[in-house]
Structures are given as C-alpha cells and as structure tokens.
Write a structure and sequence with these properties.
The structure is a homotetramer of 197-residue chains. Chain A has 197 residues and is mostly helical. Chain A has helices spanning 11-30, 37-44, 48-54, 58-77, 87-104, 106-116, 126-131, 134-145, 154-161, 163-169, 171-174, 181-195. Chain A binds a DNA duplex (21 and 21 nucleotides) through α1 and α3.
DNA sequence: GATGAATGAGTGTTCATTCAT
DNA sequence: CATGAATGAACACTCATTCAT
C-alpha cells in the first residue's frame, strides 16, 4: 500500500509537470509555430518567468519535452518485450503496444511529429533517442541473419514497420478513416509482407 | 504604349514567381517558423507591401504556394501515365517519377512537409489536392477489383506506397543513408509486397 | 533668401529628429541606465518599432546620437577658429565657445558624459571623434614646439584645458555653484597656468 | 552552543563583505546597466533574497556600496595627513596617496565613477561625503588666506587638483597612455600651477 | 502596380522583489 | 539568518499588416 503524505510532491514537481502538459497541449492545439512561451505559461497557469526556472530557454523547454516524450513512447513500445519469441510475434507486440499507447496519448505522437519537422529537431542527438529502441534493432538484425527479414538498411525497414504506426495515428493524414482493430491488424499484415524475406 | 507579345511574361508574373521561389527557399533554409513576410520579400527582391498585392495575407501566400507545389508534384508523378499497363508497372512508374522529381526539386518536398505540419494545413481542401491523383485512385480500385491489390482502405494503402517516397526523400528522417537506385528499387519491392494481394 | 516649400522636409527627417531629441532628453532626465527604447519612443511620439527603421538596434541609436552630438560640439568649439592668433588667444576662444554652447545645449554635454561612462563607449572609434578637434591638436603642438606650452602628453594637457569645461558644465559635480562669466574667466586663467610653459 | 570570540568575524559580516566585493566586481566587469541583483548574488555566492536581508533594495545596495568606497578612498587620501606641513606638500601627499590607492584599488574608482553617472547619484547626501575631506578644505582655506592659493570657489579648485586624479585613473579617457611616476609628477606640477596664487 | 514608412501586438527573456519554508 | 521558487512588469526586438504616395 502506497501512502501519499501531504506535500509529498513538492510544489516544483507539480509545476514542472503542468508546464510539460501545457507544452504538449498547446503544440497539439495550435501547432509548433504558434506555441509561444507566453501561451504555454498561461496554459500551465504560471508566469512566463517561471518557465525559465525549470528550463534554460525555449529550445531547452521543447527539446526536453521531446526527449521525455520519446522516453515514454520507447518504454510503452517495449512493454512485455520478450526476446525469445519469433521475430514476427515480437514486432506484432510492438505494433500493438504502439497503437494502444497512441489511443491513450495521441497528443504525445502529435507533439513528436511536430517537433521532428521543426528546426529544433537538429538539436537532439539521434543516437540518444535510438538507444531506447536498441532491443528492437537486435531482433531485426537476428531476423535478417536468419533470412526471415529482407536484407535492406534498417532505415528502409523502419519506413514500413515503424512509420506506419505514426502515420495511422495522425488524424490529419488519413482524414475521416477510423482506426479499428481490423485496420490495425491488416496494416500489420502489410507491414510484415513488406519486410519479410 | 506598351505592347505585350503573346506568351510574353509580364513584369507581374516574374514578380509573383520570384515571391514563390523566395517563399520555398526561405522555408527550406530557416524553417516555417522563421519564414517571415519581410524576409521572403527581401529574398524575392520586392517590398513586403508588394506581396500583399498578389496574396491576401500570409496564410494565402503559404497555402497558395503549397497548392502550386502539390500541383507540380502531381503532374510530375503522373508523367507518361499509361492506363493500359499492368497495375504494378503503373505504380512503379509513379514511384520512379517521384524519386526523379525529388532529386531535382527536393525543396518542394521539404516545403510541403513543413506545411503539412503547420496549422495552415487545415486551411486547404484535401479533396482539391486529391483530385490531382484521381487517375491513380482509379488504377488502385481496378487493382482491388481484380484481386491484385489488398482490399483495404485507400488511406492504408497510401501509407505503404506513397508515404515511403516522402520519407525516403527526407534527409532528417533517415540520417546518413544515401538513397541509391538500388535502395529505391528494393523499397519499391517492399511497398509492392505490402499492398499486393 | 531661402524658401521652404511645404513638405520640403520629408516626414522621415522630422521623425528622425524627434527620436534624436527624445533620446537626449530621456538620458538627461532619467540617466543612461533607465533610457529604454520604449520610453524613448513614447517621448518621441512614435512606436518602438519605428526606431528600428532608422537605427539597427539600441546600440546604433545611442552611438549614432553620441556621434551626432560630438559633431555638433566640435563645430561649436571651433567656431571662428583662427590659426594665426597667439596660442593663448586660440584656446581662450575655444574655451569661451565651449561655455557659450553649453549654456544653450547643456543636454548635449550631459548625454555625452553619460555615454562616455557607459559600456557603449567602447563601440565608437575614438580616432573618428578626435579628428574633429585636429586643428586644436595642431595648435597645441605648435605651442609645445615654441616652448609656450609644457611638453607633456596631449592626454595630460586635455585634463586641464578640456575636461574643466565639461566638469564645470556638470551641475551634479559642482552643486550650487553658479557659473558666472567671472568664474569662466578665472578658471581659464587656472587652466592656462597649468599648461603654459 | 556557538561561541563568538572577540573580533571574530561572524558569518554575516563575511557575507556582507562578499556582497560588497561582488557588487564592485560586477559593475567593473559589465557596467552599471547590466549589474543585476541576481548576478551580484551569484557572484557573491548567496541567494538574491539574502541581499535583501542586508539591504533594503537595489538602490540601498548601490548607494551603501558607494558610500563605503568613498569612505575608503577618503581615508586613503588622508593617510599620514600632517597639518603642519606647507600647503603644497600636503596637497602633494594627497596626490601621491591618491595614485597609490588607485594602483591597488582601481575597481573602487571605476565603481565610483559609474555610480556618479547614474540616476542613483542624486540619492546620496553630498555633504556627508564631503565631510570626509574636511581637513583638506581647511588647508585650502588657509592657503587662500595666506595668498598661496588663488581665491576662487572650492569647486573650481577641485577641478584642477582633485578631478585630474580621477581622470588620469580612468583608462577609457586617456586611451593608451601609460601612467608613469613621471607623468604623475608633472601632472601635479600642472595642478599646482593652476591653483597657486 | 509598387513601395518604404509606420505601427500595435507580439516574441523570447531578464528584472527587482517577495514569500513560504 | 538564509534560501530557491515565484512573479508581474519591463526589456530589446520582430511580426504581419496597412497606408500615403
């Protein structure tokens, strides 16, 4: 049993979280371009100056938010990761994890996408992000070695097995299409057909 | 007395084109956020006020530029479109056209992508854009009817046959990978494997 | 006879002058530290943005204002400069010119002094300013050569013949003392006693 | 139990001194304008809030610092003051004391000068400062009575006997000139020639 | 048609100061 | 006594847009 004492969470943590949420929410609502520090502050219910206590500057705010989101996404994708299963099953699990997380936190994906297409994207170390997905890389490599997966660069494989998750989760890109379990299922079949040997 | 010869490009057309090019160039260089009207004007060698002669406001400038680019891309993709060929060959032709055009006009794709991830994206009528690709839709429909292509919504198919072109053309997304003819070839094979029946 | 047509002065010149006057006035009233761009703009009756049409940034505004003032002061000091007179008479004329100009434009001197003690002072080329006073340097050199003036570095001489003018014009430094013609006279005698051979 | 020994410097005194030094240092480094309370606090190794324990507000901090410096300077100038010597010798001693102290504590002079040219200068009682130099006034008065020194207001005398020390110590005002003992010597001769009867 | 000048509203950021702990 | 957190107001500067010419 977990007991939360009064003030167990300090004032700061609450505030930092409020800023995080506000940043994500605002970018979702009005886009990266219009996401000004003042607006984020108002959304978070704090003074603009307060943001500069927790973050060095706007870039730091956005980059840190992006990294935190990528961390969350990485953990969610790898939930119940089991190395010993067949490659296809592992990828299916990742795929399902992805869509499950999206259904709960689509705003994280939207933020990540907006961020990736902004000039700030260059300020994050890609290697740092990719490390989160290293177990997946290992599986893919094994699949290639066992001639289960096509022998093409990883970047190309990801276009068919990772990006579709992002694209399907993006309302702007597929308009009125409702993402049912059936569609998720058949899309995975397509992704697997694309990459399998 | 001023005489305009047939097909002569008037001063105005030249200016509008200069604004178009400047808009694309600036968004490519400094991103959507930093692409201010004043900077576009300077780049185009005109006064900021002049831009408001040709476009109602900044939104109009960007949306119009996007539409014009989409038009150019649509035409390029459908070059030498031949309805009578097998479905696979038609799609392969589109695929190759796409990469050829990208190699010449990557700045158009970059602009389009930035635009898609901006709040302005909601201001364009998707149907209008999609009309450009109608012949392709027809082919796909035929493919589905003939059980050559999987019977899934068009939006899902496009994730595997259209988006990969965009993704592969985006330097930011695939890092150091150099897009060779061989990669284009094998990526198409994967796309086709994904969508074929 | 000079005729001023209506609109002979363009709108801009009036505005630039208003900004110049406002800059001087504000620094006089509230000191260099408190002289913000917004306040200067309000004083000049223009928008803050307008200042950035005429000046690149705040530094440019202040440095340009300083240079313009130094120019005015230089011209005023050298009024009716006559090379052929005895050294003492030339310096006396400069001295009197200085106090005459101060009695009309003490705000220029106050601005110049404030500027000299600000970090912006380093941004002006001293040589450029000193060129305005070159004729005086020549006279001093002659005085030294003829053993009329003490043979010490020019910087030391100026402490006794130039700085006293500035100091006496500074109300803050001499408190309640009223600068009469008699004081100006006897102060020059002291200055001359200091530098003469 | 905490025991304070006689003459032991308590934590508080050390902290106040740290703030004093930090204030002087920062104004020397970045000028009066950029010397923010937060920066002074960081330089002193204390919290901004701590400064408000020792000083009512920023004005109080700066004014107090100025007064303390003026006190130090006053004491230094009057070191080994001997009423019984001839007027000229007394002033020479003051002059030499001044330059000696400048060579050790130029940062105090720089601060004092910056302060004098700030709006805060009006907030100090000049009489309070002048009292420190009262013994000098007496000597001057005696000199005037004995017809050794010119009979002009004290404010005018100080322009030739006190301000030159400040001006010569100001690197910004005399550029590349290096202040040697010889220059100090001849400058005093000039100052004396200026004021002597 | 084309422009440079002009601007109110906004940008990101720092300020002096207060307050709960 | 000492502090880090917090803030409204100000900072220098840029924005999209309008307007007189």
């Amino acid at each position: 049993m977990i007991v939360y004492f009064k003030n167990m969470r300090t004032r700061d943590e609450l505030k930092q979280e409020a800023i995080f949420e506000a940043t994500v929410k605002l970018v979702n609502q009005t886009g990266f371009v219009a996401g000004s520090v003042a607006k984020i502050a108002r959304e978070a219910g704090v003074s603009p100056a307060t943001i500069y206590i927790y973050y060095k500057n706007k870039e730091d705010l956005l980059v840190s938010t992006y990294k935190a989101i990528k961390q969350k996404i990485g953990v969610a994708f790898l939930k119940d990761f089991d190395d010993s299963l067949p490659v296809r099953d592992i990828l299916k699990k990742l795929w399902d994890n992805g869509f499950e997380y999206i259904s709960i936190h689509s705003e994280y994906f939207h933020f990540a996408e907006q961020f990736s297409n902004s000039p700030y994207a260059e300020m994050v170390d890609r290697a740092e992000i990719e490390k989160l997905f290293e177990p997946v890389f290992k599986v893919i490599e094994r699949g290639i070695a066992q001639k289960i997966i096509k022998d093409v660069p990883f970047e190309v494989l990801s276009i068919f097995i990772y990006f579709p998750i992002m694209t399907l989760s993006n309302k702007r890109l597929h308009g009125d299409l409702i993402i049912t379990d059936e569609i998720i299922e058949s899309a995975f079949k397509m992704a697997w057909d694309a990459i399998r040997y």
